[in-house]
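Sharing a chain and its predicted structure for anyone who wants a worked example. Both blocks are below, sequence first, tokens second.
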Amino acid sequence: MALKFAPSGYRCLRTARGVHGLRLFTTSPPAYYKNVIVSKPDPAVALITLNRPNALNALNAAHFDDISSALREADEDPTIGAMVITGSDKAFAAGADIKEMKDKTFAEAYMSNFLANWEVIAKLRKPVIAAVSGYALGGGLELALQADILLAAPSAKLGQPEINLGVIPGGGGTQRLARLIGKSRTMEMVLTGRIIDAEEAERWGLVNKVVREESGVVDAAIKLAREVASKSRVAVVAGKEAVNAAFELSLSEGLRFERRLFHSLFATEDQKEGMTAFVEKRKPKWTHS
């Protein structure tokens, strides 16, 4: 069953004390997430908004549980074709909650496999677009780096300042940054804790685009998500899987994997519809099957 989103969207949920996000279930009445807002700005797009404004969206365990649950539910919803994750104008997420982790021991961190659950976005099958405004630091940047496409507002400030706390990134920062911007630039960010602005992030290839339009980065992300969601969802999931395989496989193995996924799409109704529509010079009517 499809998730039951609030038809009026998230803006109507703002109160004098902040914003309360709907938690959306398929089999029970709507409840509330404390730390995220879930809305549906388009019939096929889910918008997940981080909501700890008093802590600049710092990521503690409860916050991350809400983010994980909301994203997984949207990923499993057959009416959703793409997701957008964002924060506030001031901060996408200013990092992990240091108060929560400062007294952890090695044994506690090691035996609980601390931060292993931060891979939630990377494991989703449907595309995720991150819309970043303000601070995306430490764990906040690591969260954004898991997205398939990353758009930034001119106000975005991105960095891995963990070195200033006597630690290093632990949620994928060293690995994903190195694959995106290379060894030397990653070393600079990780070893100095330097924070870069949106313009530099765009030049380095850390973000897809800096959105300078007045409508803003969230609207741009929703528009892009809407375009992705308008395609065959079977093909979109296959395309995402193939691109991600490039980071795990050798070139020869990756080419073989891509070819097999390409071949498998000839067993779908959408392949027949898409190619028939092209020959007949009309728009395809996808059934996502």
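Comments welcome. Residues 61-76 form the longest helix (16 residues).
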